[in-house]
Specification:
This protein is an all-alpha fold. It has one domain. Helix content is 84%, strand content 0%. The protein has three helices and no strands. Helix 1 packs across helix 2 and helix 2 packs antiparallel against helix 3. The protein is elongated, with a radius of gyration of 15 Å. 5% of the residues are buried. The mean pLDDT is 88.
Length: 58
């Protein structure tokens, strides 16, 4: 998530840049889609790390 925050500040591509640009242009649809993509990525990583933790630490 920190990577996406960094993209919002100093990048010219990526999900964070897309969200910032669409917010500045009042494009609600793209802003919401970007936020949903970030949420889905977070859920996937949470699931993966939970499964890894269960295997490593029982």
């Amino acid at each position: 998530m920190c990577t996406i925050s960094g993209e919002m500040i100093g990048s010219s591509s990526g999900i964070g840049y897309m969200i910032l640009t669409s917010t500045n242009l009042f494009d609600k649809g793209s802003t919401v889609v970007g936020m949903l993509v970030i949420g889905i990525i977070g859920i996937i990583f949470d699931y993966i790390f939970t499964k890894v933790q269960e295997r490593v630490f029982w």
